[in-house]
Amino acid sequence: MRPLQRLAAGLATAAPRIGDTKVPMSLFEKDAYINYQRIEDNLAVIRERLRRPLTLSEKIVYGHLDDPHNQDIERGVSYLKLRPDRVACQDATAQMALLQFMSAGMDTAAVPTTVHCDHLIEAQIGGVKDLQRAIDINKEVYDFLATATAKYGLGFWKPGSGIIHQIILENYAFPGGLMIGTDSHTPNAGGLGMVACGVGGADAVDVMAGIPWELKCPKVIGVNLTGKIGGWTTPKDVILKVAGILTVKGGTGAIVEYRGPGVESLSCTGMATICNMGAEIGATTSLFPFNHRMVDYLNATKRHEIAQYAQRFAHNLQGDEGADYDQNIEINLSELEPHINGPFTPDLATPLSKFAAEVKKSKWPEELKVALIGSCTNSSYEDMSRSASIAQEAADHGLQVKSQFTITPGSEQIRSTIERDGQISVFENVGGLVLANACGPCIGQWDRKDVKKGEPNSIITSYNRNFTGRNDANPATHAFVASPDIVTAMAFAGDLTFNPTQDTLTGTDGKPFKFSDPSGFELPPRGYDPGQDTFQPPPADRASVNVAVDPKSDRLQLLQPFEPWDGKTPVDLPILIKVKGKCTTDHISAGGPWLKYRGHLQNISQNLLIGAINSENGEPNNVKNQFTGEYDSVPQTAAYYKSKGVKWVVIGDHNYGEGSSREHAALEPRYLGGLAIIVRSFARIHETNLKKQGMLALTFTNPEDYDKIRPDDKVDILGLESFAPGKNLTLVAKHADGTKDEISLSHSFNEGQIEWFKAGSALNLMATKAKQQ
After folding, report:
1. Active-site residue, from 415, 478, 662, 710
2. Strand, helix or coil at 529?
3. Per-residue pLDDT tens over the stretch 172-206
4. Active site residue 315
5. By three-state DSSP, how is residue 652 classified?
6. Does residue 660 have an active-site annotation?
7. Which residue among 85, 183, 347, 421 is the active-site one?
8. Pick the catalytic residue: 85, 118, 347, 586?
9. Which of 78, 371, 579, 715 is most exposed, with the fewest beta carbons within 10 Å of its own?
10. Is 465 an active-site residue?
11. Interior CA angle at 466 toward 463 and 467, to 5°?
């Protein structure tokens, strides 16, 4: 019996469960633990069901399934119900998310959630003064966010703390986690091996309320990296190259998974840069496998326990050998040269060696007016130290910048560290202006004075997005995107045709010189300096907190439920606008000065589709009222229809709603009486946002049928009485000349989403169910 007893004891201790070790998810949430055990248990079920090798993204996504035993799993087809580990919101989108959460009748968030103040700080004269000005101007919004987060148990990062994605990387991202964030560049956390997806506020509310998050089972695009990065080539050039390959819609419905031996030459923050800008190709998210560079970063940010725990779980933080990808891309980093993308779209990729010729051929303005580095995409210590090395070399030759030059630190920790280590002094000594730790010009929060609106000019940024008018509201600004290295070097030339890898500048001694290859530190040798403490944890006594919303406010407004579907077939609906060409969420719900109304649906709805081009006349914000025959702005015309009790539709082009995750682009048409948005194709997040608000998000079964629609048509939508998944609807377009076209409309609604439509919105359905419990 004794040998059997020893064997039994050995079996009992041979394989401890990963979940037996409790590791907090962050240094701020000691009672919320990383749940690797769920991934382990789920994958045991999934492997038995699928019986094939899994990609890394599949391991993490399927590892967070709500019901792994019964979940239908087919890439690009199934709708997965997932349990994210956490939620993150930036201040512009958090206002509406929290207003919706308050309407849902919950008293605390079901998962760890944070709110970050980064979007409402306008770049004007410099960091300190701009921050104080923003605090004064936005006081009621910040008070609302501070009290609402305190009331419902959320973490609050105050103005000046930094950009949401940098704060997440420094404090909350962890390998193998699943996070959703109310900002399209949430995938930044993929640099730490996390599946992080940008969503609308309604999705965030679902997860905060304990409801599974629904995601169409993503396809997987594999990017195999070989060789080694070096010289003037940076991680930013990887995603600039990929954007050129896949275009702004090539990643739609897919996770982009990077792998291969070349990954080892990328820093953790460099991998985050690549994942961040993956939003510009429409990807669900982007992801890197766990490696020692992530361990180094976790240790540098005082998360040693997480680093050790992830190393124990490393077998599930890599893709399986032989895993199948829906598309494969090969990039040799040793051969990759710097790229510059733009203007007007982030996927127009040009290698640096060909860029000067392209500038001249396309007659883009050669003079470089402004060079801007930083943002959530490129403001790591590595980025800043490399740019500072370029600036210092120019200073050694007596040069000042010829273009305006701005620097945006991504977080208070980065700002404080580069101030301590001297990089800020280097930038300021050559004429640079350090902005607040915030989004700033990247999202249009820029009080630009050096050019008039409509004046053609060129700027170059290390940001991620460069749609028309995005940075400065000037549609004639040619915005180009590159690495911080290229941007910094060009600031000293003041000319778009300058190639720092081969061209020379002239020092004050009259001698020409060529920049050396940039150099910098992956991580600060003396460690990070945290700077000022800008975090507000939830109080112990939340019951006594009162949420601050002034009924007279023009910036905050409590929400009223949308009307449910009346069960009738929609007939004779006017077309509010037939949109021609690119229509991003910036076109649908403009940013910049409108950001201050993000918490007031009635007021912000006055910007509905003001940037969209009307196919009838080629003009923005000028549409014909189908009842009066007069031309007016889009929101005024929509409001007129609403006042008459008339529903309306929008007709759109390809990839409608690309860009930012802002759900106001879905809330506004719903608020002003819209019933359906009918397009050639949708961007993923916007399509989901429309469904959440009770809108019909429909596509032409044959995209060419877009051309059959005339702006003055009246339309019927047939088939809603038997609305069902996979069953097409019919659009009857009745033309002014008495003829008509019957057009097939497709949709991606599942049963649950059809219930949202019938109830009037997902929030209506949630509130109804909460009352029934």
Report:
1. 662
2. coil
3. 999 999 999 999 999 999 999 999 999 988 899 99
4. no
5. strand
6. yes
7. 183
8. 118
9. 78
10. yes
11. 155
